[in-house]
Write a structure and sequence with these properties.
With about 220 residues, the chain is of the alpha/beta class. Helix content is about 35%, strand content about 20%. Helix 2 crosses helix 3. The N and C termini lie far apart (about 50 Å).
């Protein structure tokens, strides 16, 4: 199976996930929903399990959420998460179907994921939250960082579609590929704002835009911020 395909997972793919672990059970459930691109499934799974290794127990605020599969997976991985709020300017009509199918399979999800169709700057965020976003395009990633820093919230991001006109490169493109320079500057900004930062990647066969950034505020801002 080509994991980067934007074709939807459907019932014909059920036999590809025969095991009884969480990954395969989740994949079969998504196949039954027949509404999610396979790329989105694999991205969300790989990001969620890496987040789970670092951060637990916080309310989730998923920005540019799409189907909000990431929120659902994080809730399945960590029962101590109180709830998740999924925010996007336009929620896909099939998001409700996917959430319903997942909740039937895992009743503990009931009432723990809420959707808000609005701009991300309308989100209510606190220092107890974890902001997550998979492929918030271009400067939207910087908006997620702004929202986290303004509220001392934790965050986990998989940036994409870097906008070199809006996002700072720090004039590092003479040394490194320009989109990497943008992400390096994002890390530097978070560290200056008092964050502990972890960087990593998800498999490139799912997406070439695979740099993962996870950060938690350590309680101190530098340079008088």
């Amino acid at each position: 199976m080509k994991r980067s395909s934007r074709n939807r997972l459907n019932r014909r793919h059920l036999e590809l996930f025969p095991q009884q672990n969480l990954f395969s059970r989740l994949a079969r459930t998504v196949c039954e929903a027949e509404c999610l691109p396979r790329k989105e499934f694999f991205e969300s799974w790989e990001v969620a399990r890496r987040i789970h290794r670092r951060i637990k127990g916080r309310n989730i605020v998923e920005l540019a959420c799409g189907h909000a599969l990431l929120s659902h997976i994080l809730l399945l991985l960590d029962s101590s998460i109180p709830a998740a709020t999924a925010i996007d300017r336009t929620i896909p009509p099939s998001a409700a179907r996917l959430s319903s199918v997942l909740t039937v399979k895992w009743p503990a999800l009931a009432g723990r994921v809420s959707f808000q169709e609005t701009n991300m700057d309308k989100a209510t965020v606190s220092s107890e939250d974890l902001l997550v976003s998979v492929h918030a395009c271009g400067a939207l990633t910087d908006q997620v960082i702004d929202l986290a820093v303004d509220n001392n919230a934790a965050l986990a991001l998989l940036p994409c579609c870097h906008d070199l006109k809006q996002s700072a490169t720090g004039q590092l493109e003479g040394w490194m590929e320009p989109t990497l320079a943008v992400d390096v500057m994002r890390v530097a900004r978070l560290q200056t704002a008092g964050y502990n930062v972890w960087t990593g990647i998800i498999p490139a066969d799912i997406t070439p835009k695979n740099r993962l950034l996870i950060a938690t505020w350590n309680g101190q801002k530098k340079n008088g911020q």
